[in-house]
Amino acid sequence: MMHDNDIQTALVIERIKRLFFNNSEKAMEAGMSALREYCYHPDVQLLAQLSLKGALDHPGYQPNGTDQVSSEQKYLKPIFTLIFLFVGLVGLIGNLLTVIVIFKTKSLHSHTNYFLANLATSDFFLIVIGVSFDLVNIWNDEQPLELFGYCSLTSTLISLFTFASILTIVLLTAERFQAICYPFSHRAIFDEKQVKIFILVIWIVALVPSIYIGFMFKRVAQDFCGFNRPMSYVGKCDLTTSPDSFFRYPFETVMAITFVLPLFFIIYCYFRILVTLNEMSNSTHVHAPVGSARSDSGNFQFPHVSNNSNNQSFPLTVHTKNVQPPRSQQAQKMVIKMLVTVTAVFFVCYLPYHAQRLIVKYNRDCSESVYCKLLYPITGILQYISASLNPIFYNLMSVRFRNGFKKLIKDIWSHRARRYSTLAKV
């Protein structure tokens, strides 16, 4: 006895045979691959959806993309697991210490460092949620946990922390741009209260698209046309797609808003900042009096001044360019160098992620390729590497951060030593 799904499938196949194959059996002989070039047609899209539902009735069916590469090459599971755990542990410790150091060290209480603390916070939670999700993905063969709303919730949180990091970097750049290129209006825009408001706005703005994206992320399986169809008990966590969807280009839109536009804005700001700092360095002069000076002290010996005002002798003053810029400019350049490094690493590490999403979307055979399957865990690792490297950059490039980290670790170690000493006495 034929089910309703089988009857509807047979009717759709007959219509397709009449439309594209002159009522011949070519469609049946060539298989579904012959129909892929006609996926723009509603009947072919309907057949793809019905075929996927019909295939689920067969025991042992595996939707496209669920046979993860780790099930074919099981030695990759422990390797990826160790990498994820190592990178995640380094990132968790580093970002947690960054937040503590900034708020416990008064010399680090600045607008820039408040944004860096917010960046460390978003990176910390991104690692917590993202690494956990990826480890489940690896060991469960891309099958999500049997928890209500698991795919939507994890996607919302990962998107939230990712967008918060991007917006924080954008505002960091804008703050430095305002401070260096327009210093007189900087204080009015970026005072301490305003910075805290900006940080709150960052999370609110990041939450809105995150909820929308999370709502679209469900347990899905892919039909032969390449569309992700929502499923109830099989499939992987991914973005649902359909030809009649209002939001037809989600990956391209997200890439444009969260990657391309911020990148161009940041490049423009840093270009203006570097030009301004260079102009400031070139315009720095000193006014040095010329006289006989001792080479060991550098103190000028002024000529004798007689009592006769007509015969007074004044030193000759020469205007010369200062070889070394003032310390304030050197400090500004060091901060800019650190922020440029953090930003560059962020975008370099996130570029493969966006490229991977586009490759999977536009290459329908990608799910059958071993190398293509490796892209997902590799791009995930790069995201967490970006979040883990920031505290290392702060230590390498900022003396204040380095001293703050050393003091915090010393205090922690001293506290533990005193605690063990007290326990030993007891």
Topology summary:
Elements lengths: L3 H17 L5 H5 L11 H14 L13 H4 L3 H29 L6 H29 L10 H32 L1 H7 L2 H25 E6 L5 E3 L5 E4 L10 H33 L2 E6 L1 E2 L6 E2 L14 E6 L5 H36 L7 H28 L1 H27 L1
Antiparallel strand pairs: 1-2, 1-3, 4-7, 5-6
Helix pairs in contact: 1-3, 5-6, 5-12, 5-13, 6-7, 6-9, 6-12, 7-8, 7-9, 7-10, 7-11, 10-11, 11-12, 12-13
Pfam families: 7tm_1 (PF00001)
GO molecular function, one term: G protein-coupled receptor activity
Keywords: G-protein coupled receptor, Membrane, Receptor, Transducer, Transmembrane, Transmembrane helix
Q: Any idea what the CATH architecture of the largest domain is?
A: Up-down Bundle
> Which CATH C-level class of the largest domain is it?
Mainly Alpha
Tally of distinct domains: 2
Number of strands: 7
What's the short story on this structure?
The chain has 426 residues and is mainly α. The chain contains 13 helices and seven strands. The protein has helices spanning 4-20, 26-30, 42-55, 69-72, 76-104, 111-139, 150-181, 183-189, 192-216, 250-282, 327-362, 370-397, 399-425; strands at 217-222, 228-230, 236-239, 285-290, 292-293, 300-301, 316-321.
